[in-house]
Design brief:
mainly alpha, Four Helix Bundle (Hemerythrin (Met), subunit A), 3-stranded mixed β-sheet, 7 helices, 3 strands, about 5% strand
Length: about 170
Amino acid sequence: MKELSTRLLRLVEAAEPRLREVSEPESARPVLLGGWSRREVIGHLVDSASNNHQRFVRAALQPSLDFPACDQAGSVRLQAFQEADWALLVSLWAAYNRHLAHVLARLPAEKLDTPCRIGSGQPVTLGFLAAGLSCPSGPSPQPNRGRGAGLGCCPQISSIAAPGEATPQPRQS
């Protein structure tokens, strides 16, 4: 888990300054086909980090974990990330993921086999959920079915972390 923690910290350190170069107006423009803006993508990644934080801590403290699935599109809509301050979202994303890296580095090895069920998905181990952070599938209008998404290294992070006109990218499912 320490290697995963280090990779997450490197990602945050590399992406945060690039995200801060994006202007408020640019952050509000859609970058994904069908719609999400940079604000909504980063807001989604904050939400995913929050969910993963709860999953990791709870699974490490219990013999097993049953956690609800996430309605990603509904969550983004309800939290109105499109109306949020861009600098605040970037700061929150960076800080939450730094904290998540801190937690990951301290997960007890003996808890990595803890069974975790997300929504109606098949049970997976805590180690599997955490390892999914290294290659999440990114924002999707479909509920997360336990595929380890959320820290912010989704394929869209590169396209949203560069200021200027972004070419809308398809959502990954």
